[in-house]
Amino acid sequence: MELTLTPMTAQELARLLVSLEQGYADDLVAHRGMTPEAALERSVSQIRESLPAGAATEGALLRTGRVGDTEVGWIWVTLPTVAAPEQAWIHNIEVHEEHRGHGYARRMIQLIEAELAQLGVPELGLNVFGTNTVAIGLYRSLGFEVTSQQMAKRIDPAG
Fold first, then answer.
1. Is residue 158 part of a domain?
2. For the purposes of burial, counting CB atoms within 10 Å of the CB of 92, is it exposed (0-12), middle (13-18) or buried (19 or more)?
3. Neighbour count for residue 39 (Cβ, 10 Å)
4. Beta partners for residue 107, in sequence order
């Protein structure tokens, strides 16, 4: 069976939000050196600000990836804004653990690209942590290119 994307329901988003918020917080702890408490607070705040009306947020494409009746993952993309008038943005893409390794992330990106093309959106961007080599390989194979790079170094306060 082929993977399809369907608009996410409010119930689906509510179920996925806790995992998304915790996962982003874990990344902030690991890659930004934040305390777990501060990271979770920032994660919850940023995600809720980005989706003020939940699944009905204007300009947010929240799609559930399905193979037949089985949910295999999801993708969240925002349409271009005044700040970035030519570029849609992938905020999150996730394939549920038990469905990984079947090309579903690749197909979700291809399907969202087709939807964006129909809307006349000329570019799609994303952020990826530098240690996420699997995702980096996927994005490169899909034609994404590095357009900026951030670097950081942890400083030992003891000197």
1. no
2. middle
3. 22
4. none
* Residue 42 within a domain: yes
Alpha-carbon span 76 to 65, nearest angstrom = 11
Count of domains observed in the chain: 1
- For the segment 48-87, what is each residue's pLDDT rounded down to a tens digit? 999 999 999 999 999 999 999 999 999 999 999 888 899 9
pTM: 0.89
Q: Which domain holds residue 26?
A: 3-141
Question: CATH code at 107?
Answer: 3.40.630.30
The answer to whether 139 and 126 have CB atoms below 8 angstroms apart is yes
Confidence bin at 142 (pLDDT 50/70/90): very high
Helix (H) or strand (E) holding 126: strand 123-126
**Could you tell me whether strands 87-95 and 60-67 are parallel, antiparallel, or unpaired per DSSP bridges?**
unpaired
147: in domain? no
Contacts 24+ apart (CB under 8 A), 150-158: 152/31, 152/32, 154/33
In this predicted structure, what is the pLDDT of residue 86? 93
The verdict on residue 154 lying in a domain is: no
